[in-house]
User: Which sequence fits this backbone?
């Protein structure tokens, strides 16, 4: 994507209306939390698509903002439109137009570090209240929280001017400022940001990383991960899983359950590794074993592992990529998990501290929950996709030779992996009215003894 091009796509995904932007190669990244330019362009697009329910940015990983974040941003767009079209602002604009017509580029002059306070001085040079309002609104599109903070600081400064010299111009400016404040402070975004406003440095986007909760996933996986750490969370334990994922367990104020946050290996791949995995995944997706004996789960995994290694080596030679040995083995295991395996479930079952894994129906509506041997029941940052859950059911049916349908709504079988085994119960309608759900219990690797009791 060239720096000046912003080609958004509008997609219908079931009941969802998704605003999508390909951010590959963009200097602004793929995160609203990090880029004020990306936020500005997204808000401008939201003003054209008021029915949007989700925002998606495509890059090495796919970043998605759900209904909560989209709703807050839509409210912001509507408030800024109301401010711009209000009679209070328009009447002030007419007064300033009589004095001097501002340049059309006034809004564009609000650079990354300019907020409402700096806009006052710029407005005086460009024609007064109209230019001031334009610059204020332009900055609100980039940094609404920082703009609101500086707006309030400006109100204090103008209030002092009003006391010292209550001219009609100053009174009108205060009226417009108060009106903008009244519109902004009713927004959900500003309300949830209230605890963080005191002492906020305008331009510091850390507050968005606290308030926004986006999910990320590589495009070869359907499982989403909330990558931001929970607000108000304190790390009580962290460790690495055998396959390379990083686990942090948080204690959160006013919540009894701990939060199990995993950063999967798939999200930390380099661009070169990602391209290799994506290439091999496309080849594997079209592969169908001819030998019926390969329908055995373990045999199938072995075949896919060997194929992955060979294809990765071929990719590395063809593209002169510096990948060999352990790195190829790491990527091949990722491919096996995402094609012939159980995806994120395998990472969770590889954690020796996890005893149970539960996924409630409807799949995708809520994160996975686990039972940790030390912290007991924990929420997680993992949200599998319904299509992925259906693929797990297909593998379970194939491995067990048993059905799962309305006539047989429970499938009770085992998952056998190289590192561990587990008992899994998949339940569907009518016993699970909202669709497929899973309950998994790991087998103990060491037998019970009197010491365990």
Assistant:
């Amino acid at each position: 994507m060239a720096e000046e091009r912003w080609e958004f796509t509008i997609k219908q995904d079931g009941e969802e209306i998704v605003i999508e932007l390909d951010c590959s190669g963009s200097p602004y990244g793929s995160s609203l939390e990090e880029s004020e330019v990306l936020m500005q362009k997204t808000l401008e697009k939201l003003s054209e698509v008021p029915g949007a329910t989700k925002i998606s940015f495509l890059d090495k990983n796919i970043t998605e903002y759900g209904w909560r974040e989209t709703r807050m941003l839509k409210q912001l767009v509507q408030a800024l439109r109301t401010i711009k079209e209000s009679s209070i602002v328009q009447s002030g604009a007419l007064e300033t137009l009589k004095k001097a017509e501002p340049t059309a580029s006034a809004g564009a002059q609000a650079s990354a570090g300019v907020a409402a306070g700096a806009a006052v001085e710029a407005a005086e040079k460009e024609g007064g209240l109209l230019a001031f309002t334009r610059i204020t609104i332009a900055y609100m599109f980039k940094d609404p929280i920082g703009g609101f903070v500086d707006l309030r600081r400006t109100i204090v400064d103008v209030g002092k001017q009003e006391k010292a010299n209550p001219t009609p111009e100053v009174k009108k400016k205060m009226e417009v400022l108060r009106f903008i404040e009244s519109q902004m402070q009713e927004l959900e975004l500003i309300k949830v940001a209230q605890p963080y406003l005191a002492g906020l440095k305008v331009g510091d986007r850390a507050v968005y990383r606290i308030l926004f909760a986006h999910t990320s996933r590589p495009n070869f996986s359907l499982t989403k991960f909330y990558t931001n750490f929970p607000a108000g969370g304190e790390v009580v334990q962290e460790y690495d899983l055998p396959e390379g994922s990083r686990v942090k367990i948080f204690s959160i104020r006013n919540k009894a359950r701990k939060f199990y946050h995993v950063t999967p290996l798939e999200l930390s791949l380099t661009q070169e590794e990602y391209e290799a995995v994506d290439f091999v995944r496309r080849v594997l997706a079209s592969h169908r074993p001819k030998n019926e004996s390969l329908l055995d789960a373990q045999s199938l995994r072995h075949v896919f592992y060997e194929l992955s290694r060979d294809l990765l080596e071929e990719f590395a030679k063809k593209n002169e990529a510096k990948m060999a040995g352990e790195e190829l083995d790491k990527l091949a295991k990722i491919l096996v998990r995402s094609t012939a395996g159980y995806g994120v479930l395998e990472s969770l079952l590889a954690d020796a501290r996890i005893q149970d894994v539960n996924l409630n129906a409807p799949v995708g509506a809520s994160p996975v929950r686990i039972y940790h041997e030390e912290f007991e029941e924990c929420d997680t940052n993992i949200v599998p996709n319904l299509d992925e859950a259906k693929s797990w059911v297909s593998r379970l049916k194939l491995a067990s030779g048993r059905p799962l349908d309305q006539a047989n709504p429970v499938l009770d079988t085992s998952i056998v992996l190289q590192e561990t085994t587990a008992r899994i119960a998949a339940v569907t309608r009518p016993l699970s009215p909202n669709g497929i759900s899973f309950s998994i219990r790991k087998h103990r690797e060491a037998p019970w003894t009197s010491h365990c009791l």
Notes: Residues 76-194 form one domain. The longest helix spans residues 297-318. The chain has a mean pLDDT of 86. The CA atoms of residues 32 and 39 lie 5 Å apart.
